[in-house]
Amino acid sequence: MDESQQKAARLAGFLYLFTNAVAIFAFVVRGRVVVRGDASQTASNILASEHLFRSAIVAELVCVAGTIALVVALYVVLRPVNRNLAVLAVCWRMAENAVLAMVTLAEFAVLAFLERVPYLDAIGMPEQQSLAYAALRIYGAGFNIGFLFLGLGSALFSYLWLKSGYVPKVIAVWGILASLLMAVCMAVVMIFPALTASLSIVYLAPMGIYEIGFGLWLLIRGIRPPAEAI
């Protein structure tokens, strides 16, 4: 284990905390403006808080940029454990972030559908609101796809942490379980969308505990030679 791995591990710890903070901000903003099942009220909320809605979109893109840096840092630390598996984990996480970056276009589509412009005035405001809400549903579907790849990539990185001995095994095992739970829940939600609300807390809580807790560990403690890990 060399100094570059130590630095990359501490950077990963910071980025786990940073990206979660930014993602929580975006999540809270969406929760304030989007009313499930009510296109009219959702449209009114977005138009009344357009700059806040736009700030959430920017926050999501900042989160994507930070997560890509996080993935690179994880690769630097875990490449010596198994280079091929580390590359696969990177690819899954990059697929996640490509999807999550592109799906913000659906949020910009929401704003476009709600603009008062002649070619949209011709179809009427109720129809514009319906189109905007449909774009939000597309955004939600893209989010599920991204989180499926997040779960797969995170599970593989957690497995490499377990094999490395750089951190306590309990952290790595929790990461594997939380990540696989997220991937499974995303697959279930895509097949049975009615379960979305019921399963949200099931996959968000364990993954949140893992990423924030592990982020703090890496930032404060860093990594240790395998013989020193507990």
Poorly predicted sequence stretches spanning 5 or more consecutive residues: 117-124
Order of helices and strands: HHHHHHHHH
**Structural domain count:** 1
* Largest sheet geometry: none
Radius of gyration based on Cα positions: 20 Å
List the helices and strands and how they pair.
Blueprint: H1 3-33, H2 39-48, H3 50-78, H4 83-102, H5 104-114, H6 118-121, H7 125-164, H8 169-191, H9 196-220
Helix pairs in contact: 1-3, 1-9, 2-7, 3-4, 3-5, 4-7, 5-7, 7-8, 8-9
Can you describe this structure?
- Helices cover 84% and strands 0% of the residues.
- The protein has 230 residues and is an all-alpha fold.
- It has one domain.
- Helix 1 runs antiparallel to helix 3 (50-78) and helix 2 crosses helix 7.
- The longest helix is centred in the middle third of the chain and has 40 residues, at 125-164.
- Residues 117-124 have low confidence and may be disordered.
Short description:
This protein is an all-alpha fold and 230 residues long. The chain has one domain (3-225).
